[in-house]
Automatic annotation (TrEMBL), chains A, B:
Keywords attached to this entry: DNA-binding, Repressor, Transcription, Transcription regulation
Entry-linked InterPro entries: HTH_LacI (IPR000843), LacI/GalR-like_sensor (IPR046335), Lambda_DNA-bd_dom_sf (IPR010982), Peripla_BP_I (IPR028082)
Identification of the protein by name: LacI-family transcriptional regulator
Start and end residues of each HTH lacI-type domain: 2-56
Entry-linked Pfam families: LacI, Peripla_BP_3
Molecular function via GO: DNA-binding transcription factor activity; transcription cis-regulatory region binding
Keyword set includes Repressor: yes
Highest taxon above the source species: Bacteria
DNA sequence: ATCATCCGTGTAATCGATTCCATGGCTCTG
DNA sequence: CAGAGCCATGGAATCGATTACACGGATGAT
């Protein structure tokens, strides 16, 4: 593969001049420029990004570590992150932690070794020593969706409290009183916040959230299934199950079906995170939608700000309730999404 | 950040010795080894992968260019590709082409510039000049799922002909005679092959596939919706719609619902590509499942073979039919997947 | 005892770019 | 017309690793 030296030889100039042309440095004569460009063209020269990175100490690459690529919410997030990063001239390397802290650490380490310019993380746990070290070590970093208290890094996330309040009011209005929730891992912020928001919203309406109505999940479908089986086995099962993410909602749906029950007639179901498939399930599922694209864009911009010496800002955007048929009532096939 | 020189100084040896220890070169005294390791530990030294790559001319990174990350089939593929690559000591950079050839070219170019060791591609089109050039240029490359005729590169894919035949027999057995298909883009191999397999299977049963029953899609939901609307507007609409991928099936489901029809009573539906969500749609959708994990593993291994000087092999694995309720008949909620 | 081998180690070249500094020619100014 | 300043350019240092080569000392064979 042709190098800068070959181009210099072909154009009859020095490598310094070639480099200047390629980086549009002002001090280059028009004649040299055209000669270099012609040489680049005939040789099909492409600069070696590895060599350039070594010298300039920047890779124009961002690392994105997410907890589960198979979760459509994160897939979508990743897609928009890449889009915005590309617009800003960065590439993205995605690391899938699969909700496993040690895998998360593995990815963070390789990304750092590769000298990525910045790191976007949705932590799978409450904070590995490594993550703290990296943040303190000066690597530009931004948390997205989830964050870790005590690590001083900008956070870009959605605030679901308003939407959860709307949801609880909606359920209350439909006559439901016994509401249960499948929580996410206690080690994640989203795992806790959603339960708290739910509990608060219920309290405001004078409803209690007994411990038996709090299932412990891990953001995976199987845990949603299990938690729901427990709910259904209670002497007084809940009238509504609210899953803290979309995969657990699917597990819940499974468990309900397996029990021979029907949604929403026998039991209602709602989920945090709206995904396209919820329109097509039986029945379509009422969900809380996050502004995924905006979150992704804001996160990338915050990270780019940090990298390029500007002051990054934490961003919190509101989530909103999308009512479908899974909780009963008249709300029908409305095109409330997209 | 500490460099190899700092480690050498700390350990009281030369950089060469440090490098030897780190690369487990045999000619190092036990004493030097422990001293270097200790120095590495106290300094928290991590080798700079960029510098190493420049010198060794390998990045231990694979590029994966897929046509649509939001398509669960490709998401899953990407996830298993990363898993296998990691097991083999490679990182993966994913490029999402969004079914747009120019975006695909962009990703290929940046990946080449970054000197990835090999490229895994599921081409979005019939073959850009760039792709041909890269393949000819000696970059190790493997096609996965889709491929480009005329480019001599190993192909790892699923063969759906058997499963399609099973599907058509299943439909025929249920009494369906007017079968329609929503095809993928003609520029993709999967777009054509699936139609051909369908047509052949029908012919064997003495059925014709009229042009009006071939919808042109682009593997996106919207195109499935459109094609289905056309089918339903025909004087004699089909009894079955078979979508060549999962997103178009979803679009078809939308169109059928919008028309006020019911699946499978009014019209049957089946899809190529099985995804977890198909279990939860209304009704669960009969689909042709690809062995995604095996495909991903085979593709990565073929690429690693090529990179490491062994002879890579093309691999074709059979897809299989998973019967659910969307085509009618007795096939019920069976757990036929996973 | 002598010479060849081998082993552990260090010095320096190398990968392919960017960039500091020196240089020579030119223009501008006083 | 001389000195200052600027511009285009090239030579060489540099980034942080790997590795070819040289070298001295120890070991083994004859």
């Amino acid at each position: 593969m042709a190098g800068i030296k070959d181009v210099a030889a072909e154009a009859g100039v020095s490598v310094a001049t070639v480099s200047r042309v390629l980086n549009s440095h002002p001090s280059v004569s028009e004649e040299a420029r055209v000669r270099v460009l012609a040489a680049v063209e005939t040789l099909g020269y492409r600069p070696n990004a590895v060599a350039r990175s070594l010298r300039t100490a920047q890779t124009r690459t961002l690392g994105l570590v997410i907890s589960d690529v198979l979760n459509p919410y994160f897939t979508e997030l990743a897609r928009f992150v890449e889009e915005e990063a590309r617009a800003l001239g960065y590439s993205v390397i995605i690391g899938n932690a699969d909700e496993r802290p040690e895998l998360q650490d593995h990815h963070i380490r390789t990304l750092i070794d590769r000298r990525i310019d910045g790191l976007l993380v949705s932590p799978a746990d409450g904070g590995s020593p490594l993550m703290r070290e990296v943040a303190l070590g000066g690597t530009p970093m931004v948390f997205v969706d989830r964050w870790i208290p005590g690590i001083d890094v900008p956070v870009v996330r959605a605030d679901g409290t308003g939407a959860v309040k709307d949801l609880v009011a909606h359920l209350h209005g439909l006559g439901h009183r016994r509401l249960a929730i499948i929580a996410g891992p206690a080690a994640t912020t989203t795992g806790n916040e959603r339960v708290e928001a739910f509990r608060d919203a219920m309290r405001e309406l004078g409803l209690a959230l007994p411990d038996a109505y709090i299932g412990q999940g891990d953001f995976q479908a199987a845990s949603g299934r299990l938690a729901t089986q427990r709910f259904l086995a209670l002497a007084e099962p809940p009238e509504v199950v609210f899953a803290a993410d979309n995969l657990m909602a699917l597990g819940a749906l499974d468990a309900i079906r397996a029990r021979g029950l029907r949604v929403p007639d026998d039991i209602a179901l709602a989920a945090f995170d709206d995904i396209p498939w919820f329109v097509h399930t039986d029945p379509p599922i009422t969900a809380i939608a996050q502004p995924t694209a905006d979150l992704a864009r804001a996160a990338v911009r915050a990270l780019a700000d940090r990298i390029e010496g500007r002051t990054p800002q934490s961003v919190t955007l509101p989530a909103r309730l999308v009512v479908r048929r899974s909780c009963g009532g008249a709300a029908s096939n409305q095109r409330s999404d997209r």
